Amino acid sequence: MQTSPDAMQSEIVASNEASLSRLTLNNEQxxxxxxxxxxxxxxxxxxxxxxxxxVGRRYLVTRAHLEAFLSGSRSK
Length: 76
Description:
Blueprint: H1 5-21, E1 24-25, H2 27-34, H3 38-47, E2 53-55, E3 58-62, H4 63-71
Antiparallel strand pairs: 1-3, 2-3
């Protein structure tokens, strides 16, 4: 059974709304929200250009830090 385009759009919207309600974002969510690829996101996280917290092997970014990065501010 194939999913209709409307159902797929609803799933995407629900996923994005769930991401927006989180305090932190992971790599996959950063990729979705910014449109950047995995390698570029990892480069920005490792270099500290996007401030993050490392938990095990995962990077977590607060929404405020992502917004500051996107606006060109250097918030820490």
